[in-house]
Each structure stands twice: as C-alpha cells, then as structure tokens.
C-alpha cells in the first residue's frame, strides 16, 4: 500500500537525555551478569541534535536505562575514544555507535579487541577490527536495486554520477557488481545521457542528475534510484516518477516513526532509526545472555526497523530491502530484496 513520503525525512529533535556521569553506578554494575551496552553519540557540538534524536530512538527499543547508557562523543574521534574507554571501564559488553567512520576506526582500534562495536556509519571501510557497520551502505542499496532490475529484464544500466559522495560510491558499487549480476553498467557523468541503456541509475539528487532523469523518463527509459536521492522536493518527486527504488520498508519505518512522534514529538530520520535498531540488537543479545562477538554474529540475525539483517565475520552485514515504485508523491512496495 502506498506510504507517505514524509516518513523518511530527517528532522533533528531537541530532546534532553542523561549524560555519562553515572556510567559506573551500582545499578549499572548490577547488570553486568547479562551484559550492558553503551550508545556513543554526540550530545554536544554541531551534531548534538542528531545525537539526541538517535538516543531518543534507542530508548524506544530499550526502556531500561540501567541496561543502556548514552555517552557523549562530542562529535570527534578523540571524544569517541574517551567515551568508549569510559564505557568499557564501566562494564559495557557492547558498544553502539559511534556515528562516523573516523570515530568508528578510532574506537575499534582502542577497544575493538575487547568488546564488539556496532557502528552507525554507512562507510564500509570502517568495518573490521571489532567493528560492525550497521549503516545502510551504497553497495547494499545498489546491489538490491540492480538485482531487482536484472530480474525485470534490464541488461544495460547507465549509472549517473553527480559527484556527491553517495552517488559516486553507488556508481562504483554498480560497476563492481555488473559481472555477478549479469549486467553491463555504463558509468555516466553528470549531464550525460542514457544512450542505449535499458535503465538509468540516478543515486544522486542534484539538478543535473534530475534533468537527466526527466529526459530518460520522457524517452521511455526505466529510472532506478535509492533513498539517498530522495529529499522530497517537488522537482525530485516529479523527476523520479515511476522509478524503482531500493529502500528500507516504509511500513516498518512508519511504525517506528509513529512511536517516536508519540513519545518525543516530531519525525525521526533514517539515522535515528539505526539508533533504534542498534538498541534493539543489544536488547535481543542481553535477553539471550549473549552480548558477545558470537552473539552479534548469530545465524538468526536481527529483525530491525531498517529491515532484517545479519552480520558477517568481516564486520559487514547482509540486509533486506523493499523495492518501491514512486508515484504521485507516494511509494508502492512491489518486491523485497533478500540479504543485500
């Protein structure tokens, strides 16, 4: 059923949360038998609003404040390391976050050999050394989308790179996957044309990318997109009308967004949803008394707001995606992609 486009829009929330001052409290120490987790996010600095939104989302999944402590990273790698060391010293068996790749690499180097780190970054280069990347990566979204396109008869894909980091990473991922998927991927610069392609992959949302999308659609070429391209401006929605889109399932997200709004007001973003998922993973492992690397790698995986997923030993994860069709400002789910 179509889903309102607004549910995936990121809006920072001004929500007050507790600091790490009580990290070594007796109540927290009492939880060590089954394990406790620490969420490492920026509560001060430029990304403080985002950090508070992530923490508020996490508390929807884990309502026991003694089982999950939120620790301020200050938005820097040094701050993230200090937060991680304080968490481990206080008895944390699992770290959730930090937010960026640079922070994740620093934290993994400092404590990854002692506790698993489920990071919120979507940079696959940050995985390993004890860190597991929970963020939705360009390769995951691209693989899911192109796999569906191939199943629908697409053979030649023009992949439009508008120069943004997400777009460039998606185009590179598409090129790497062409042999496995049986596709011919034609990297196309911004302002380029689809040529003889069956489909145009538009992972970015710049003006030049959208102009190319309009021309391709008018020429009868199937459009392909990812959620990163959709910022819900009217021109974006109009340009990508009829596009196939790889996305977390909007129905799952809508349920989470409604619960978030009921407690906190406002709408959460996709990054906040990752905080909710990370806390849900920690709660699942704590309830099973398995808050270890082996627990993170459990075969059953985890049922998350952003879709079912399962971590791999190299720190990556296989996750399910919904395949949507954009129509008149709404999304219709037409398929699912398993384990991208």
Secondary-structure element order, as H and E?
EHEHEHEHEEHEHEEHEHEHHHEEEE
Q: Portion of residues in helices?
A: 25-40%
CATH topology of the largest domain: Rossmann fold
Q: What's the architecture of the largest domain, going by CATH?
A: 3-Layer(aba) Sandwich
* Strand arrangement in the largest pleated sheet: 1-15-14-11-10-9-7-8
Write down the Rg.
Answer: 20 Å
- What is the CATH class name of the largest domain? Alpha Beta
> What summary fits the major beta sheet?
8 strands, mixed
Query: What distance separates the N and C termini?
Result: 23 Å
Q: At the fourth CATH level, what is the homologous superfamily of the largest domain?
A: Response regulator
Q: Specify the structural class.
A: alpha/beta
- Total helical elements: 11
Q: Could you say how many structural domains there are in total?
A: 2
Poorly predicted ranges (pLDDT <50, ≥5 residues)?
1-33
Walk me through the structure.
This protein is of the alpha/beta class and 340 residues long. The protein folds into 2 domains: 3-136 and 252-307, Response regulator (Rossmann fold), CATH 3.40.50; 138-247 and 321-337, Response regulator (Rossmann fold), CATH 3.40.50. It contains 11 helices and 15 strands. It has helices spanning 26-29, 48-61, 77-89, 101-111, 138-151, 165-181, 207-218, 234-239, 250-264, 270-287, 293-296; strands at 3-4, 36-41, 68-72, 92-96, 117-119, 131-133, 156-161, 184-189, 199-201, 222-226, 244-247, 309-311, 317-319, 321-327, 330-337. The protein has an 8-stranded mixed β-sheet, with helices on both faces. The protein starts with a strand and ends with a strand. Residues 1-33 have low confidence and may be disordered.
